[in-house]
Amino acid sequence: MAQLPVLNGDDIYTALRDCFDPEVKLNLVDLGLIYDVKTEPDPHSTPAFPRQRVKVTMTLTTPQCPASGLIFEQVHNRLASIQQVSKVEVDLVWEPRWTPHRISPAGRQQLGI
After folding, report:
1. Is residue 50 part of a domain?
2. Is the confidence at residue 106, as pLDDT, over 80?
3. Is residue 37 part of a domain?
């Protein structure tokens, strides 16, 4: 079996661009909800080919976000679908607080702001 490439943070951010806030219709990365991603080898993964654990630190636009469950499910399922990922951890934080200033230039263009 061919060795799979090792994932890095950019790979995870690219995958997370497939996850959208259903209310704003913008991907979570460009919306500014993803604060950090970390990958590390998982020496105990099964199957034994080199796999990695992924931790995503993110927030929501508001603590009362009605789509929070759907958003977390999207993040988990998207990353878990990557063959090299053995475990996904999503850490929800409220500091720093999300503001519209966190929206990327590409996101602003897509939203027309």
Report:
1. yes
2. yes
3. yes
